[in-house]
Specification:
With about 220 residues, the chain is an alpha/beta fold. It is built from 7 helices and 9 strands; from the N terminus they run E-E-E-H-E-E-H-E-H-H-H-E-H-E-H-E. It has a single domain (about 35-45, about 75-215), classed as P-loop containing nucleotide triphosphate hydrolases (Rossmann fold), CATH 3.40.50.
């Protein structure tokens, strides 16, 4: 079964008066429960491609299919609904809400979909080793702890697909290794399709597929 299919996608933006091509004729397929690393030099379009696969943006040309739906034909509200149903996202900069505790940050996506929130959120925070940090705000957490909260928030919904943009880019070696271990453990437990952007070729080699963007 196919989780994501990218068909001849190109994306061009205006740089002042000049068109700037970020992606050109990109195609790839990711099967369900597989792991894929997107690699390439800075500026090669990795994060742009990841955002488009998650439906955060749409390409200039081509098609993107997510869980059997052509998301390039959906409006923003329809894409948001599809993300809420199928997608988890881990950002390099964590993107935690500063006025919510760790527990409240993890509860939020469950509450937005009107699901039981507190017990699953506590369970997932314990799963990532933060059972003593429920009531802590992001500013009082280390970078590694903030990324674990972000990971718990993404996995608490048991998403079909997890997108991770440089999940270890802001972390030291030890914390980065812990985050990667947790991603692959949770991926195995939940059968999640994982697509991650990384500069780390050792991390990329742990994935079943690698997709390298040039230029």
């Amino acid at each position: 079964m196919i989780a994501i299919e990218v068909k001849q996608v190109s994306h061009t933006v205006m740089d002042g008066q000049n068109p700037l091509t970020i992606l050109h004729d990109v195609s790839l397929t990711v099967n369900r429960e597989q792991t894929l690393a997107v690699t390439g030099y800075s500026g090669s379009g990795k994060s742009t491609l990841l955002g488009m696969m998650a439906g955060l943006d749409v390409p200039t040309a081509g098609e993107i299919w997510l869980m059997g739906r052509e998301i390039t034909r959906l409006n923003e509200e329809q894409r948001a609904f599809l993300r809420a149903k199928h997608v988890g996202f881990v950002f390099q900069a964590f993107q935690l809400l500063p006025n919510l505790t760790a527990l409240e940050n993890v509860m939020l996506p469950l509450e937005l979909t009107q699901q039981e929130a507190e017990a699953p959120a506590k369970s997932m925070l314990a799963r990532v080793g933060l059972e003593q940090r429920y009531s802590h705000y992001p500013r009082t957490l280390s970078g590694g702890e903030q990324q674990r909260v972000a990971l718990a928030r993404a996995f608490v919904m048991q998403p079909d697909i997890l997108f991770a943009d440089e999940p270890t880019g802001s972390l030291d070696t030890v914390n980065g290794e812990n985050i990667i271990r947790l991603i692959f453990e949770l991926q195995q437990e939940q059968g999640t399709t994982v697509v991650l952007v990384t500069h780390d070729m050792e991390l990329a080699s742990r994935c079943q597929q690698q997709f390298h963007l040039h230029n």
